[in-house]
Specification:
- The structure is a single chain.
- Helices cover 42% and strands 15% of the residues.
- The chain is of the alpha/beta class.
- The strands form 6 sheets. Strands 6, 7, 8, 9, 10, 11, 15, 16 and 17 form a 9-stranded mixed beta sheet that branches. It has an 8-stranded mixed beta sheet with strand order 2-1-3-4-5-14-13-12, with helices on both faces. Strands 24, 25, 26, 27, 28 and 29 form a 6-stranded mixed beta sheet that branches.
- Helix 14 (494-505) packs across helix 23 and helix 16 (591-612) packs antiparallel against helix 18 (649-678).
- The longest helix is centred in the N-terminal third of the chain and has 35 residues, at 2-36.
- 34% of the residues are buried.
- Keywords: Disulfide bond, Glycoprotein, Ion channel, Ion transport, Ligand-gated ion channel, Membrane, Receptor, Signal, Transmembrane, Transmembrane helix, Transport.
- InterPro entries: ANF_lig-bd_rcpt (IPR001828), GABAb_receptor_plant_PBP1 (IPR044440), Glu/Gly-bd (IPR019594), Ionotropic_Glu_rcpt (IPR015683), Iontro_rcpt_C (IPR001320), Iontropic_Glu_rcpt_pln (IPR017103), Peripla_BP_I (IPR028082).
């Protein structure tokens, strides 16, 4: 006990001495800090507060070295500026060189937070490092600021304490997509390093390309540790692909190795397109000539930084500083990431002052008694204030306006560079408003780009794979060999000829090799759907044949434009529907026309008789004779065989008009009757499928086609469907009545009709389907090329010539026979105008005749009317229109003349030579010569009927 007390008494002076020594050391450290400026006084007696910021970099890389130098210069420039002399804060950087390891970076972060108690951490260079440090920042509320790494999360709100002070990759993806859209490239392959740096870039790039209609067929990933053999294997796979447009994003070291091997393998030649993303474009500043030598023709995208006097001055000072620290370096100036690092340090200095930090803000929070160092890390209000102030900081930086939006630096414009020889030239810009342009402020064409191979001709975006021969599948088609047929290792027929015409017209050579889709024993290996699916399985590079473009097939392949007529119709036999009987001669005129014509024949005959019978003895005689004259005269005009003599001018007018009508009627009848007797009226036996379904007839279709599915959808019973393979089988089935119709595509039916033209026809509606097309794999660049070739053949007439050869010439094609040769009966309506004209002229002649006759006999009528007897007037009128018009002959004269007539009429040739008269064959002569007064002429007068006066006296 005493010994212990003595020992304690002995140690007390020692403990007191140690305590005094510690106090002295603290005081000395404070004084030293004051001398270094850690807590030095400023104007007004205020003590300057130190804001500790950790820096995690890999000093073994160009990026780490350049960035550290730029951050040091930023703080020197910031605190050396007179405008900042009165600031009460000073940012103090604590560097940790961790190398590329994410574990070392995380360990350095814990050390900085636990032991140094930093208020922010700057510089995780890679996304893998940022992933760990971002979680550390979330837990401790300490901002993690990176000018080179991507956000470790798809959503920045998930890591609110991770801030990216470089332009986001989304805008870069839009710039690359706009450049690809500018040259109309439809497929792109990203070639990227297999690490976390592309976690967000690739989804952004794929989305931007999809927005402009460009497809990403696959993504080529190369591990950072890949050797030459691995890279050669990757390049060989790229050479075996059709696409020749590549977007590259990888580290400097891997990119230099990749492009060197690509050049050796011939992939830096003509036809290829290489686009480098931002990050890789700095390789020319870092590596210099070795990169320029292997990357000629490469097009790069990088943020546009205005070349100001301030920037030029900084580059010069940085170069002098870096040369002193790194003598012998070939680096010409700070890379873009170094400028971002400069602005980041500057922004931290501004934010530290704007945060208005107090001494109490630096007091650590309550100690967490966790079991690990990570859990025991304490936080302070200073970190949160610095975080909030940093997000609100805005100033004109080296790279432009520094402004944080959505936890990353707001991006603006990009420039497009082109590697030509040993130089990089700016060929254009991308801006959110103008997209791709040769000028920042107005729309303008890009400057000339020199592509790989030293050409300024824009590559088409795809190349035929090296040593590639297209394996073309040909369907087995024995029945319709004129469309496609495989003979002696070569495809023949219309489909193959069109394809080869297009292939030979291409400006480049496309080797092709045909293979038949058959078993070699005269049978097909499957349906057309199976053949198309072989293209999807990459067993064929294309299919050439009579392949119909269908929606279900287009899910697996891409089709060219159709090169044949499209649609599906019915093929049916035709029959002559007109029956020729003993009464066929009546068919040319309809019943109403027959009745109407007969009525006008009788009407015209009556009119002629009424006018002529007073003055023309040929229309007189017994009633039966006069009725016969009426009908004989009128109907004999039908063949212009009338013999009666017309003496009245009014009658002649009526007859002339009537003869004109009869002429037209006769010619029309003759033409219609000839058509009926000589021309067949061919009509289809079936006009629609509903009739076939109702009657339960059988329906034929082409074997191995898509017709069964279509016919089932049209409600045709599957048991009524019969497949056929050739035009001959079609003809046999239709002619024997085995099937009522054949349903097939129009090209097949036209080929059938070119051989069996006169017995069949196409009828019914056209069911819409695209025609024949060539099938290629999805995304194949040959698809639009072949489609354009098909359009060219159609426009220059070659396609029409090939179709004429296929169908045997346009002159032999059969037109649709439905109602094409129907000859219908003539109707009364067609001749109504003519009948109205002849009826009016006849009535007019009748009216004039009645008027003239009454006027000439008005004295008799006046006398009859004066007696006041209407019956007498009617009798007078009846006698006027019934008696012959021979008023000059008196009854005595007539009687004497008739009494003296010799019953035997002498011939005019027996008369005296001094009397020559013309006699009608039907007239009587007067007294013979020698009788009567000598020297008096013999008067030749028509005896005619008794005169009106005689009839009146007899009455």
């Amino acid at each position: 006990m005493k010994a212990g007390v003595a020992a304690a008494a002995h140690h007390e002076p020692v403990a007191g001495a140690l305590y005094s020594f510690r106090v002295l050391v603290v005081l000395l450290l404070c004084l030293a800090g004051a001398e270094r400026g850690d807590g030095q006084a400023v104007a007004g007696g205020t003590r300057r507060r130190a804001v500790d910021v950790g820096v995690i970099l890999d000093r073994a890389t160009w990026l780490g070295n350049v960035s550290w130098a730029c951050m040091e210069m930023a703080l020197e420039d910031f605190y050396g500026d007179a405008r900042h002399a009165s600031y009460s804060t000073r940012v103090r950087l604590h560097l940790r060189d961790t190398g590329p390891s994410a574990v070392d970076a995380a360990s350095a972060g814990v050390d900085l937070l636990k032991n140094v108690r930093v208020q922010a951490i700057v510089g995780p260079q890679t996304s893998t490092q940022a992933k760990f440090l971002a979680e550390l920042g979330n837990k401790t509320s300490v901002p993690i600021i990176s000018f080179s790494a991507d956000s470790p999360s798809q959503s920045s709100s998930q890591t609110p304490y991770f801030i990216r002070t470089a332009w986001n990759d989304s805008s870069q993806a839009e710039a690359i997509a706009s450049l690809i859209q500018k040259f109309n490239w439809r497929e792109v392959v990203p070639v990227i390093e297999d690490d976390d740096s592309n976690t967000r870039f690739i989804p952004d790039l794929v989305g931007a390309l999809r927005h402009v209609g460009t497809r990403v067929s696959y993504r080529c990933k190369i591990h950072s540790s890949a050797g030459d053999d691995d890279i050669k294997g990757t390049i060989s796979s790229l050479k075996g692909n059709w696409t020749s447009v590549f977007v590259v994003r990888m580290s400097y070291q891997l990119a230099l190795k990749f492009f060197r091997i690509a050049k050796d393998e011939g992939m830096m030649g003509q036809g290829f397109v290489w686009i480098t993303a931002y990050g890789l474009t700095d390789i020319f500043d870092v590596v210099g000539s070795p990169a320029l030598d292997v990357m000629n023709g490469v097009v790069g995208v990088e943020p546009y930084v205005e070349d100001t006097d301030r920037l030029q001055d900084f580059k010069q000072r940085w170069h002098e500083k870096y040369k002193k620290e790194k003598p012998g370096t070939k680096l010409n100036g700070p890379i873009l990431s170094g400028l971002y690092a400069y602005d980041t340090a500057w922004a931290l200095a501004l934010a530290a002052e704007k945060a208005r930090l107090l001494d109490s803000d630096f007091v650590p929070s309550e100690t967490n008694n966790g079991s690990t160092d990570f859990e025991r890390i304490s936080t302070s209000k200073a970190s949160e204030k610095l975080h909030d102030a940093f997000l609100k900081t805005s100033f004109p930086g080296m790279t432009g306006t520094f402004h944080i939006q959505d936890w990353k630096l707001l991006s603006t414009n990009y420039k497009i560079i082109n590697v030509v020889g040993q130089n990089r030239k700016v060929v254009g810009f991308w801006t959110p408003g103008l997209n791709i342009s040769g000028n920042l402020k107005t729309n303008a064409d890009l400057y000339t780009i020199i592509w790989p191979g030293g050409t300024d001709k824009v590559p088409r975006g795809w190349l035929l794979p090296a040593n590639k021969t297209l394996k073309i599948g040909v369907p087995f088609k024995p029945g319709f060999g004129k469309f496609i047929q495989f003979e002696n290792g070569k495809a023949t027929g219309f489909c193959a000829r069109v394809f080869e015409e297009v292939i030979h017209a291409l400006p480049y050579k496309v080797p092709i090799h045909y293979e038949e889709f058959g078993d070699g024993k005269g049978e097909s290996n499957g349906t057309y759907d199976s053949l198309v699916y072989k293209v999807y399985l990459n067993e064929f590079d294309a299919v050439v044949g009579d392949i119909t473009i269908l929606a279900n097939r287009s899910l697996y392949v891409d089709f060219t434009l159709p090169y044949t007529e499209s649609g599906v119709r019915m093929l049916v036999p035709v029959r002559d529907q007109r029956k020729k009987t003993a009464w066929t001669f009546l068919e040319p005129l309809s019943a109403d026309l027959w009745l109407g014509a007969g009525a006008f024949f009788v009407f015209t005959g009556l009119i002629v008789w009424f006018i002529e019978h007073r003055t023309n003895h040929e229309f007189r005689g017994p009633p039966a004779s006069q009725i016969g004259s009426v009908f004989y005269f009128s109907f004999s005009t039908l063949v212009f065989a009338h013999r009666e003599r017309i003496v009245n001018n009014l009658t002649r007018i009526a007859v002339i008009v009537w003869l004109f009508v009869v002429l037209i009627l006769q010619q029309s009848y003759t033409a219609s009757l000839s058509s009926i007797l000589t021309v067949e009226q061919l009509q289809p036996t079936v006009t629609n499928l509903d009739e076939v379904i109702r009657r339960g007839d059988y329906v034929g279709y082409l074997n191995d086609s898509f017709m069964p599915g279509l016919l089932k959808r049209l409600k045709i019973n599957e048991s009524k469907l019969i497949p056929f393979n050739s035009p001959e089988e079609y003809n046999d089935a239709l002619s024997t009545g085995r099937v009522a119709v054949i349903v097939d595509e129009i090209p097949y039916l036209k080929l059938f009709l070119s051989k069996y033209c006169h017995n069949y026809t196409m009828v019914g509606p056209t069911y819409k389907f695209d025609g024949f097309g060539y099938a290629f794999p999805r995304g194949s660049p040959l698809t639009p090329e072949i489609s354009r070739g098909i359009l060219e053949l159609a426009s220059n007439g070659t396609m029409a010539e090939l179709e004429n050869e296929l169908y045997g010439g346009s002159g032999t094609m059969c037109p649709d026979k439905v109602d094409s040769q129907t000859s219908s009966s003539l109707t009364l309506h067609s001749f109504l105008g003519l009948f109205m004209i002849t009826g009016a002229s006849s009535l007019l002649a009748l009216v004039l005749h009645v008027g003239i006759t009454i006027y000439d006999n008005r004295s008799h009528l006046v006398g009859a009317c004066s007696q006041g007897s209407w019956r007498g007037s009617l009798a007078i009128l009846s006698k006027i229109f019934h008696e012959p018009d021979n008023m000059s002959n008196t009854p005595d004269t007539d009687e004497t003349r008739i009494a003296n007539v010799d019953p035997i009429v002498e011939s005019p040739w027996s008369m005296s030579s001094h009397i020559i008269e013309n006699f009608d064959s039907d007239t009587d002569m007067g007294s013979p010569a020698g009788e009567g007064t000598p020297g008096r002429e013999v008067s030749n007068q028509d005896p005619g009927p008794p005169s009106f006066a005689y009839m009146h006296s007899e009455g």
